[in-house]
Amino acid sequence: MAPPEPTYDAVLFDNDGVLVEPPSADTQSEAARAAFRAAGVDDPSRQHVDAIVSGVTPAVLDEICTAYDLDAETFWEARERHDEESQLDAFRDGTRGCYDDITAIADLPVDCGVVSNNHHSTVEFILTFFELEALFETHYGREMTVESLRLKKPNTHYLERALADLGAESALYVGDSESDIVAAERAGLDSVFVRRAHCRDVAFETSPTYEVEDLHDVVARICS
């Protein structure tokens, strides 16, 4: 008997928390503090550090930089540089790795891609460092610019670029946050929420199409 036809003709994956372990809160906070120090601010408020780490918008960035009389573009360049360096160091020293079930993606009978809110250059490093390039036909992270904050998920900008690359009409997006679910819905895609350890108890206002325990279950959904 022939295997069933795939339910979708492409699958897109978030990166952090889906393919690789997410960065620790302490690592992200220290990278933000390093950026403040590089800009001449030795003791930023905890509130401002948390805001820089947790989904900062261009408007909030402007408010924070105004409080310290900083140029937003210059500060953000420092933040992005320190943030990426902290991530690459964690991968290189083994304190952060990829999930074992990532090998399941090789069993998918459709084209795959990566769409992440992380830096594009960081995503490229990860794919090379863990030798994952062969699993994905396309990949997108955001540029290291203030403007990219307007384009990150739940904006559909990078999802749509990946779909165009793959020529996909029916696709599934696999993520670990509500912004992933919302982005998929806005792009007209079905979504999968992977309940990893770091998001085991997360509740959402927007429900995903599917919830799974790991990437093996994603393969099963595609081929069911």
TrEMBL record:
One of its GO terms (molecular function) is phosphoglycolate phosphatase activity. GO terms for biological process: DNA repair. Pfam families: HAD_2. SUPFAM superfamilies: HAD-like (SSF56784). Keywords: Hydrolase. It comes from the Archaea. InterPro entries: HAD-like_hydrolase_sf, HAD-like_sf, HAD-SF_hydro_IA, HAD_2, HAD_sf, PGP-like_dom2. PANTHER family: PHOSPHOGLYCOLATE PHOSPHATASE. Belongs to the HAD-like hydrolase superfamily. This is HAD-superfamily hydrolase.
